[in-house]
Amino acid sequence: MPNSQNPSGTTWSAERRREVADALEGTGTLLVEDDAYGELRFDGPPLTPLCALAPERTLMTGSFSKVLAPGLRLGWCVAPPEVMHHLVTAKQASDLHSNTFAQQVAARYLDAAPIDEHVARITGMYRRHRDLMLALAADLFPGEVSWTRPDGGMFVWLTLPPGCSSMALFEAALKRNVAILPGLLFYTDGGGDRTVRLNFSNADEPMLEEGMHRLARVLAGQLRAAS
Fold first, then answer.
1. Do domains 14-113 and 123-226 have the same CATH topology?
2. Cβ neighbours of residue 159 closer than 8 Å, sequence gap 6 or more
3. What is the secondary structure of 50-69 as a DSSP string?
């Protein structure tokens, strides 16, 4: 996920993209570029996708659920023709057919509405939410906590100080009606217990502010308990 990766929110630089494309050249490797969040970019111009840098060695996927409606579980794929043929066969074998009604809803919307204006509107809203979350984190969180500054997407990635557990924080925050995602759920080796994913797309600004204040109080309590 070179754009606004889930869960970290990080984005690959143009130089890294070129390095990866160069490394693919002359190999039999097919890279899967998951670009679910690429259209939700807040800072700087769009970056060239790997699909454009290495079209014969890249399969690119995206999702309407991130830019159109969360419940619209439809995606898209760009791939070399010989790869697409096998993908279609595998897709038919796995679920027979995508939701016809959802496809009709998406097609009708794309035909009737200016999707670029919609994406620009939600991107502006998410940018404001990100800025608010980062400002509140700087004002409220203990100095031992660090976080990423995503240039797009939906997530901020926290790193907790030694002695703090993301699962303990999750359980304590949930008691105060604040939902966070423990980072260890994204690891396959048992790591990540000091990392947390925060989402800024699913709440309005007053809810974000209240949630961050509650989380800050929980964090302070966790640090006191760990000291």
1. no
2. 145, 146, 147, 194, 195
3. HHHHSTTSEEEEEESTTTT-
Is residue 162 reached through a cis peptide bond, with omega within 30 degrees of 0 on the bond before it? no
- Mean pLDDT along residues 124-142: 97
CATH of domain 14-113: 3.40.640.10
The predicted model scores a pTM of 0.90
What residue spans define the domains of the chain? 14-113, 123-226
pLDDT of residue 225: 82
pLDDT tens column, 44-79:
898 999 999 999 999 999 999 999 998 888 999 999
Q: How far is CA 78 from CA 21, 50, 75, 148, 205, in A?
A: 16, 11, 11, 30, 36
* DSSP tag of 224: H
Asked if the model's pLDDT at residue 227 lies above 80, the reply is: no
d(CA 62, CA 65): 9
Task: Output the pLDDT for position 165.
Answer: 92
At the fourth CATH level, the homologous superfamily of domain 123-226 is Aspartate Aminotransferase, domain 1 (3.90.1150.10)
